[in-house]
Predict the 3D structure of the following.
Amino acid sequence: MLKMHIIKELKAIVGREHVAVERQDLVCYGYDATQMEFLPDAVVFPADSGEISRIMTLANRERMPVFPRGAGSGFSGGSLPKGGGIVLVTTRMNRILRIDTENMIAVVEPGVVTGDLQNAVEKLGLFYPPDPASLNFSTLGGNVAECAGGPRAVKYGVTKDFVLGLEVVLPCGEIITTGGETFKGVVGYDLTKLLCGSEGTLGIITRIVLRLLPLPETRKTMLAMFESIDGAASAVAAIIRARIIPATLEFMDHSAIACVEGQFRLGMPGNARAALLVELDGDRELVERQAADIGVLISPLGLIEFRAAADAAEAEVLWKARRLISPALRKVNPDKINEDIVVPRSRIPDIIRRIDEIRETYDIPIVNFGHAGDGNIHVNIMIDRSMPGQAEKADRAVRDIFRAALDRGGSMSGEHGVGLSKAPYITMELTPAQIGAMKAIKKALDPNNILNPGKIFPE
């Protein structure tokens, strides 16, 4: 419970109407996609970096934790107020400040919804590629804090590859800028890249300078069904070897295909053990030629069925198979644990087979899909927490899955971050020296451990 003088000062900073302290309001900002819940003591909605600076100065004086939050769509608990404190929501800071078509950059506030920026720049013939699944509601500040990825990462990279500069309020309240509006700059440490993916533990992002690209002339979408996961993996390798880099290269394993087909009846072959959703973009003539080449390249690799969309409407039909996985999962079991391991592309068949073994060992449903182009697999462990022992089995399965990814030269998180949910496992991947170096950076910038405490590092 916050002392009354703290609440009074918060109201003086942001305005009475932008501070919430009633329980019915607080519960709305105490959860995310992990299904974990923690009740904050207050929620504040600042309008600019100056107000955030004053909030952080107050928080340090009172030793009160502050938890930055955008749309709260994260899968790792990165914005959750464990232990109580102040949740600082950036959704009021939602302006696209400038789109510079000559230099191909955009300057935005952190509360801008990702999809809104994409729509705005595309009207001007420009393109912002990062496309997390939550793009229609997640905010750019959260995307930067988590270094969000998405299907187009195989060709274009992830959020950090498009961030040129930031304005940031440091944990002690100081406002700094990092980087700038130029594509080059090597004066001092690269604080911009350090802050990308720092999960709100090193600073609160208040302005973002983003690199844009020319909008591709056209897109071509294809769906390929295979008789084995090895065939699908070989298809991925064949496409990349042919110097064709698709904009997206998504896959579904047999469990995901069965899940979607069982509920939505899309006409996917019953003997399909893997599917690839391939989307090309760029020059129209080149895209058509590459699409034809892909059909030839993958045909001898156990291909069961190949569909190519003739137009945008048909492309939407093909995308249904991928987009309907999450809704279909609700029919499997009520509770989902969504992990996002990543392995080298060539190890996808091996890791899928190992996950199948883990599924059989613990006798719980596990559904796999993800980004075949960069080896990022979304492993969905489906349980019913009301059934005795299921949560414990899921915890053991998660550890086994992380170990399997690490043993194959991968990582236990490709794009969701660490937050709370993966913090207990971080020593499986990072050495004491690595963790020590990261903690030293955190201590230097946040000596009182005020900003988003408890995240990333195991307690």
